[in-house]
Design goal:
The chain is of the alpha+beta class and 354 residues long. It is 35% helix and 29% strand. It contains ten helices and 18 strands. The protein has helices spanning 35-42, 97-108, 151-170, 186-195, 228-238, 250-258, 260-264, 267-285, 318-324, 327-350, and strands at 5-15, 18-27, 30-34, 45-49, 54-59, 62-67, 72-75, 78-81, 87-89, 92-96, 110-112, 118-120, 129-134, 173-176, 200-207, 217-222, 289-295, 307-314. Strands 14-13-15-18-16-17 form a six-stranded mixed beta sheet, sandwiched between helices. A hairpin with a 2-residue loop joins β1 (5-15) and β2. Bound molecules: zinc ion.
Length: 354
């Protein structure tokens, strides 16, 4: 494979009132950032061990060790793995931004963004903004019930009701990824939540399967599926990708793989949020609790915040479909999700992120 480094632009970092410039290069179409310049900007002590080709960062009592071309790296005594290894190039040591963020977050709860901004995570984080994603839309109807009810219409209505509950009762901002019956690519949905700097991302769906009697509710977070059922549900929801026009931008696909790591940073929170929403939903709907589940949903990839996907009942079951068509029932779904968010907010804002 040909190795090409291209200097594309310097990244401006504003940290503690000072401006710093960091070289950004492209390697195999991935953006790599000059690690020594970032460490310099953030005031970390670092040195490069020429002999062993290791880059070592010291932060208080913690140490990170990265090897040239090695996807494994150490922070303290823990080993981390990253798809795209850091690289030495000329006299500098480069790493992709998500990798650098794993380190800076472990060191001092800061997170660097592509635009050169720094987000600081401190104790008692306030949830200020929530992005709700009504699944499907436009040419993608989602699942269709035996009597023709479309998932895209049901979930949009639930999302609007949920937005109203959140804004009226919690007095925090809530934005929908789509307000109308329009198509939106899966990767755009999380990208939107990241751009909005949302603190929570919730994608709303209704389940479907061949059986017309299966019923109940599930809530998912992003992690490899453990069962065939989880894989099947994810495959059905991911199939929305077939509606996306033209060639998929490989750059953005690679980016989304990179950002899976971002979501693993929020694994615990996402799992917790899924559990709280599921509990409240089932209580409110008298729906069968089918459990918190995990699968590789494209729509959750890349979310830099706790993110879950709700599968509220089965639209493929005629009895459930009939219920889903009722406004009162959809309000109950919205209320269940809302209650779960309230509980999560209360717990999340009190604790310290580690
Ligand atoms: Zn769906």
């Amino acid at each position: 494979m040909e190795i090409i480094f291209l200097i594309i632009y310097p990244l401006k970092i504003l940290y503690k009132g000072e401006e710093h410039f960091v070289d950004v290069e492209k390697f195999s179409n991935i953006e790599y950032y000059d690690l020594s310049a970032i460490c310099g900007a953030l005031g970390y002590k670092f040195f490069y061990d020429q002999q062993h080709e290791k880059f070592i960062i010291n932060f208080k009592e913690k140490k990170a060790i990265l090897g040239n071309g090695n996807p494994f790296f150490l922070i303290g005594d823990k080993v981390y793995n990253y798809y795209y290894p850091p690289k030495k190039y000329l006299n500098s040591f480069y790493a992709p931004l998500p990798l650098i963020n794993i380190i800076t977050k472990k060191f001092e709860r800061i997170f660097l963004e592509n635009e050169g901004k720094i987000r600081v995570y401190t104790a008692g984080i306030k949830i200020k903004k929530i992005v709700i994603d009504p699944g499907h839309g436009g040419k993608d109807p989602g699942a269709i019930g035996p009597n023709g009810t479309k998932e895209k219409d049901i979930v949009l209505d639930i999302a609007k009701r949920l937005k109203k509950l959140i804004e009226d009762s919690l007095k925090i901002e809530c934005i929908l990824t789509r307000e109308e019956d329009v198509f939106m690519p899966l990767s755009e949905r999380t990208k939107f939540a990241n751009q909005e700097k949302a603190d929570i991302f919730i994608s709303i769906h209704c389940n479907a399967c061949e059986s017309r009697v299966r019923h109940g509710t599930e809530v998912y977070f992003l992690s490899p599926a453990k069962t065939d059922w989880e894989r099947a549900v994810a495959a059905r929801e991911n199939a929305a990708i077939r509606f996306e026009e033209g060639e998929r931008d490989t750059g953005s696909m690679i980016e989304s793989i990179l950002w899976d790591v971002a979501q693993t940073e929020f694994l615990k929170e996402s799992n917790h949020l899924a559990g709280l929403i599921l509990e409240e939903l089932c209580k409110n709907l008298h729906s069968k609790n089918r459990g918190v589940r995990q699968a590789n949903f494209y729509v959750l990839r890349g979310a830099y915040m706790p993110a879950v996907l709700v599968e509220a009942e089965f639209i493929s079951n005629p009895k459930c479909e009939k219920k889903l068509k009722k406004a009162k029932y959809r309000q109950k779904i919205a209320y269940g999700i809302f209650k779960g968010i309230c509980k999560f907010k209360e717990i999340y804002e009190k604790r310290i992120r580690l």
